[in-house]
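Researcher: Let's run the pair from yesterday's discussion. Sequence first, then tokens, for each.
Model: Starting with the first of the pair.
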Amino acid sequence: MRVAVFVTCLVDGLFPDVGKATVRLLQRLGHDVDVPLRQTCCGQMHINTGYPREALPLVRNHVETFLDYDAIVAPSGSCTGSIRHQHADVAREFGDAVLAEGAEIVARHTYELSEFLVDVLGVTDVGAHYPHRVTYHPTCHSLRMLRVGDRPLRLLRDVRGIDLVELPSAEECCGFGGTFALKNPDVSTAMLADKMSNVLATQAEVCSAGDSSCLMHIGGGLSRLNSGVRTVHLAEILAS
């Protein structure tokens, strides 16, 4: 099986350790992993803010880059959601049936990290050891668009040494929502305050999630409170 990692913009630019952890984890599970240097932004932020025409060349590049892989793994629910649910529609909107067909093929082979581990590889125990008190925030795209369900929690429960505690009102949005946080800062901040209050109520050392964007938002708030709670991506815990 030819496996590639789609790193995503945010990971590449701000959280490279998440990408490295994803590769390290998959290699530990016995897979040779490619990280194609041609990959760029998938175009999600362009599409979500009303610029599908500007997203079209990004969709084309993404399809051409990943079309020949059996599995494309992304440490991001939101980017995986865009690839699955937006790329082919963008191609069809501008009359490119060939690109739409290619986008559908890539979409079928694209997995959020926990999906790939549980559904494709059939594992929940990945040999991780993480002796910390951890709570998990299920991000909106992974929860509602991809419907990953309890896959991340099943993986975390099999981590040795972990003290996994339930997050109150876990399914509530953290308030990031991409450009939502920029366009509606007051609402976003109020939602973040609720999320941080719930995280702190767990007395966890670490808040984890499957999307670096949400962790950036939550982590920024927690750091401003000097709470001492760290945010750590699911991939980093599973690779530990």
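Model: Moving on to the second of the pair.
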Amino acid sequence: MNFVEANGAKIPAIGLGTMTLMEAACVEAVEAALCVGYRHIDTAERYRNESEVGEGLRRGLRAAGIEREDVFVATKVWRDQLAADDFECSLDQSLKKLELSWVDLLLVHWPNPTVPLKETLDALCKAKRDGRAKHVGVANFTTSLLEEAVKLASEPLVTNQIEVHPFIDQEKVLAACRTHGLAVTAYCPLARGKVPGNEVLARIGEAYGKTSAQIALRYLVQQGIIPIPRTAKPDRLAANLAVFNFNLSDAEMSEIARLKQAGLRVVSPPHAPRWDN
């Protein structure tokens, strides 16, 4: 497994996203992912599947013959739990559901302007100091929020988890993350089904014997961005990992970059901040 290093964290370069994976399908997907080589599992309190992720983790550790310390587990605190006492309670509940004493990464899932950011970040950083989280970070933070968060955080932030795929222009926030040494974790890296069938990605894929999805993932990985595609299908789990045995040319990377368009964000709920693009 390749890794991305950021502010003291060593994060596996691709992970399994688990949003919408529920019940037995979630357990089986996490176990299967670990068995085919994944070492990075992403969940959240809001996904309501932390218990299933924890069960899949335990099964996967046994089946793959690996240790807990070999797997990078991330979870997130929802936006309505960002006040200090609520944050503590949410984290404790997440750990209880996962049946873990610590997670590798704890994120603020979405910013909430009704709670002072300092209060939230103090609670986040406390979780690292007391050992319940090895690393901390944020998700869905814009450039201005990121600047504020870096100044307020008493512990290093290691990632900003945001929507990134070939069709969205995130250059402003990507640049801000690089400036502060944060990794970027990419959710919806396949743009919720918009990648398969794209003519440019399919054509480039033919040259390497790869699918459009694998080209999109390679495009991100080659920039040091950490994609966390979601799937419950064993063949796709394996295919998503098979992006480290080839390199896209500079010309191909540039051609893919030109696919970016305004208005192709696939996640923008009512509580989203005012985006940079």
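Researcher: Give me one sentence on the second I can quote.
Model: The chain has ten helices and ten strands.
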